[in-house]
Amino acid sequence: MPDDHAPRPPAPLTAVRPKAPLSGRVAVPGDKSVSHRALMFGALAVGRTEITGLLEGEDVLATAAALRAMGAGIERTGEGRWQVDGVGVGGLAEPDDVLDLGNSGTSARLLLGILATHPFTAFVTGDASLRSRPMRRVIDPLSRFGARFLSREGGRLPLAVTGAESPVPQVYRLPVPSAQVKSAVLLAGLNTPGETSVIEPQPTRDHTERMLGHFGAQLRVESEPDGARRITLVGYPELTAAPITVPGDPSSAAFPLVAALLVPGSEITITGVGINPSRTGLLECLREMGADIALENQRIEGGEPVADLHVRAGPLSGADIPPQRAPSMIDEYPILAVAAACARGRTVMRGLAELRVKESDRLAGIATGLASCGVRVAVEGDDLVVEGADNFPAGGALIATQLDHRIAMAFLVLGLAAHQPVAIDDARSIATSFPDFVPLMNRLGAGLADPA
Length: 452
Fold this sequence. Notes:
Strand order of the largest sheet: 2-15-17-16
Radius of gyration: 21 Å
Distance between the termini: 28 Å
Shape: globular
Low-confidence stretches: 1-6
Largest sheet: 4 strands, mixed
Structural class: alpha/beta
Strand content: 25-35%
Number of strands: 23
C-alpha cells in the first residue's frame, strides 16, 4: 500500500515568454488571512457559520484540522463552501494529538493566541520551514496572560502550551508592526475577563477587528496622542454565528496582475479581489510606477471592500517605496521586486526587516534570484535596491525556492518577461496559498510547464 505520509518528490516548473499577450477574466482563491479567521471565529461562535469562497489551500486546511481536533464541527459542503458549528468562546477541548500546522505561520501564531487562555495543554508543530520560524514574538505577550510555553531555543516549534486558568487582561504595545501578533493577543483576550488592548504604532491589516465586529464582539478603536491605534476588546463576549463571503486574496491576485503588466499587449480582469485599505500597498506602488490598473464594480462583501481589477500592460518606472507601506503589502514584495526588475530606472524598497522571518529569508531569496537572472540588485541594511532592466531581464536561471510559495510564483512571473526561461526547483509550496495557480495562469496564456 502507498505511504500517504511519504514526502512528495520536488516538482520543478519552467516559465518562458509567451508568444501572445495574456488575456481573460479570472477569479483568484479566497483571501488566506480572512479564511483562517473565518474558521477560527466560526469555531468560537455559538451556532453554525456558513462560509463561501474559503481558500482550500494547505495552510487553511491545517487550521480547519486543528480546530476540528479541539471539538469544532467543520465540514466542506461544496466548492469553497464550508460550515462551522462553533463551541462558543472558551469551549474548545484539549486535543488528543499534536496539532500539525504544516507551513502556516498564521495558523500557528493565531491558534497560540486562542490556546493561551484555554486551560489545557496542547502540542504544536509544523513542517521544516515553520519549525524554523520565530514564535517568540507571540509567546512573550501571551505569557503575560498567564499561559506557559515550553519550546525549542528561540521560541521555535515544536512547542507545548498550557493555557492560563485565570487569565489576566493585558495592554500590549506592538514593538514591530504585525497583524499576526495583534490578532494573537486579541484572540487571547476573548476568553479573558475585563478589557484587553493592543496598541499599534503603525496600522496593520485589520481583518481580525472587522471579523470580531461581524460576530458581535464589543470592540473599540481609538487614536493615541502619538497617533498610534488602540484596539480594545471586551472579554467573554458571546460570539454569534454569521455568514461570511471570503473575498479574493489580493496577495494571490498580485501574480497574474503583475504578469499582465509585464507581458506586452496583455489585458486581463481579476474579479472579486479584496481591496481592504490595509492590504492595498502593492496597488499604490504599482500605480506610482505607472501601472494601468482600474478598480471596477466596487462593493462590500462580508464586511470587506471588494472590486474587480482591470489590468493593461504598459511600461513601468522605478519608484522609492517608503517603509511605512510595508505592513500593507509585506507578502507582495517578491512580486513587486519582479516588476521593479522590468521597470525603467531604480526602485528602492525600504524597511523590509520582516521579510527575513517569513517562510524563508525572503529578502535574501529575492536578491539572490534576481541576481541569477542578470538583474542588478543590492540589499542595503533592510532596504532592497533593484536596477530595472528597462524592458526584459536576462533570465535563464534555476531558482531555489526554499519551500516559499511567494518566491516560487514571483520568479515564474519573471520568466514570462525574461529573454531566457526561468525555472524553479520546486512548485509544491504553491499549494499552501494558491492551489490553482498554474492552471489559472495557463488559462490566461502563460504556458507554465514541467521542464521535463
